[in-house]
Amino acid sequence: MSACEKAFNALGDPTRRLIFEKLRDRPLAVVDIADGLSVSRPAVSQHLKVLREAKLITMYQKGTRSICQVDREGVLAMRNYLDNFWNEALAAFKLIAEQTEKDHE
Amino acid sequence: MSACEKAFNALGDPTRRLIFEKLRDRPLAVVDIADGLSVSRPAVSQHLKVLREAKLITMYQKGTRSICQVDREGVLAMRNYLDNFWNEALAAFKLIAEQTEKDHE
DNA sequence: ACTTACGGTAAGCAAATACTTACCATTAAG
DNA sequence: CTTAATGGTAAGTATTTGCTTACCGTAAGT
Predict the structure, then answer these.
(1) Nearest C-alpha of chain B: how many angstroms from A61?
(2) Per-block average pLDDT, block size 10, for chain B (105 residues)?
């Protein structure tokens, strides 16, 4: 279930979260992502690389522009991880509750 | 929706993810978390503080031991964020798809 | 062909952060 | 009361990592 190790690493950085959220509403070129942000374009490029390797975004060429968009794979992987985590935590909690109940009777 | 800023930061670190996952199956004392990990106990304490402030775990005293367990608040906040994100991304995608369809007729 | 727009990569720097050792406080047990 | 167990905090170090400038490559426009 640690297919999303990289995804958690990637979204651990506030600037990358900003970029990620910018792409939620529409695909954007690198240059469009960069302006409005307080960091340089090369910095953005580096962040995009991390997001790409985490499968949180995909990119394709369109002329000289590199268009970025969110990648369902990474997003769903994280969602799945958290769902799973929570279900198992809940199950474990119930098991322990039953156990301690037994101890008290 | 950025109630989980801290949660993403917290789970951005691999050691903290390890600790977090250790707690999925059962509550543990700090000392129990520390052994098995490759870092010192004080390091664990510091990580626990971060996880606590991110509302990913809660702690309570039991004698000299501090028992840690997962906190639903943080987990559900992240899950919610990702659900929301994905829904909005999907909606945006459809909107754009419809738009470009129009352009082609 | 020349120029402009776009963007990836490298090297170096600066800031953040994860880790260690040392120390102290609290609680239970002898 | 003394000792052992547990764990939080502080100070300092070291590693990581995010950022910048500089440079180069590619694709479109003139």
Answers:
(1) 18
(2) 88 98 97 96 98 98 97 97 97 88 65
